[in-house]
Amino acid sequence: MSNYRYFFIGLMGMSVFITPLSQAAQQSPPAMPVEAAPVKLDTVIIDATAVGTLKAEESVIIRSEIDGRVQAIHVAEGQAVEKGKPLIVLDDSEYRAQLAESSATVNLNVLNFERAKDMLNKNLGSRQTYDEAKAKLDESRARQSIYQVSLDKTRILAPFTGILSLKDISEGAYIKAGDDLVTLVDIRTVKLDFRVSERYLTQLKIGQAVNLRVDAYPNETFSGQLYAIDPRVDEETRTILLRARVKNEAQKLLPGMFARVSLLLAVREQAITVPEEAIVPQGNDSFVFKIVDNKAVLTKVTIGKRRTGDVEVLEGLNASDIVVTDGQIKLRNGVGVNIVNQPSSKQATTPATPSAK
Asked: What is the CATH number of the domain that holds 226?
């Protein structure tokens, strides 16, 4: 009987300790301290970045079409010149003499032709004599035209408005037809050649905005427009050659310059963005901890444009959501959280600048 009494007393004592322990086990774990931030509505610029090379809008190597000695050079190296202005003049004395001789021959043949024509009309001359006179007149006029063209070619004119490059000739030098004399370039507008991946093909459109920077002016951005898309894809690089025009009124941009290019593909207004530290990668997927009723809810999201400091979210979040930005490593889905910072609920919409991909 005494053994049962001791056993009953022992059970009662154990219940005193077990009941508080079980109640403690049923209590919720303490809320985890985290930092959070509201989703932000922003303007997201979708762009393709590349590198390119600048080219002159117009560029031509001026060559002489005839042989001759340089009589005068009318423009200096690096000087701007208007279309149609003389650049170089060759000695024309020989060509003038040839033209004068051919003109005299033409005048004589005109007289002979008129005489043969009059004789034929009066039935005093033969048709053969008339035809021969006419042929000689036509031949002499053709030769006169050739000499006139050669004389005109002694004056080498600017084919368009531009700037002359450095020259390698001097007055008095004898040049031959086809010799390079000087290069003329028009850089009031420059062309920009660059390549982008073929994956952008469906997004390319004539007229899209292009921004570029060059090392010579690191703090300046120059703007242009896409105007040509090569219809071929390079087999080795799988890229497409694009060409843009860039206004260059200050003539800061020069042919041959290396450029860093940003091609504007699209602009998404009121896009949802979150701080980049809010993203929790898991394998090939991306998640965020969204705070709902003071609890962390693990939410899968679809990522869009990544920029410096934030990430665009295409799917998975609403504009009113708040996400955890620090402390995710201790969280699990459904755990209570305590926000230790004070995230502003105000939605700001600010224009975004494109960033390199």
From this structure: 2.40.30.170
Shortest CA distance to 162 belongs to which of 56, 64, 54? 56
Q: Given pLDDT bands bounded at 50, 70 and 90, which one contains residue 175?
A: very high
Residues 165 and 69 in one domain: yes
The residue range of the domain holding 113 is: 92-153
Q: Is the dihedral of CA 311, 312, 314, 316 positive or negative?
A: positive
Going 286 to 288 to 289 to 290, the CA torsion angle's sign is negative
Q: What is the CATH number of the domain that holds 335?
A: 2.40.420.20
Which residue in the block uniquely carries the two structure tokens 């079409």? 65
For residue 343, the model assigns a pLDDT of 65
Which of 299-304's residues contact partners 24+ apart within 8 Å by CB, and which partners? 303/279, 304/44, 304/268, 304/271
- Give the pLDDT of residue 27: 59
**Average per-residue pLDDT in the chain?**
88
Which distant-in-sequence residues (6+ apart) come within 8 Å of 225 by Cβ? 207, 208, 209, 210, 244, 245
pLDDT tens digits, one per residue of 321-330: 999 999 999 8
Average the pLDDT over 317-338 and give the result.
94
Nearest to 289 by CA among 250, 325, 315, 265: 325
At 195-254, the pLDDT tens digits run: 999 999 999 999 999 999 999 999 999 999 999 999 999 999 999 999 999 999 999 999
Q: Are residues 145 and 224 in the same domain?
A: no
- 255 and 218 part of one domain: yes
Same domain, 187 and 237: yes
- What are the residues whose beta carbons fall under 8 Å from the beta carbon of 125, sequence distance 6 or more? 116, 119
- Together in a domain, 82 and 169: yes
Q: The domain spanning residue 73 has which CATH number?
A: 2.40.50.100
Q: Which tokens go with 204?
A: 């390319």
Tens of pLDDT, residue by residue over 184-197, are 999 999 999 999 99
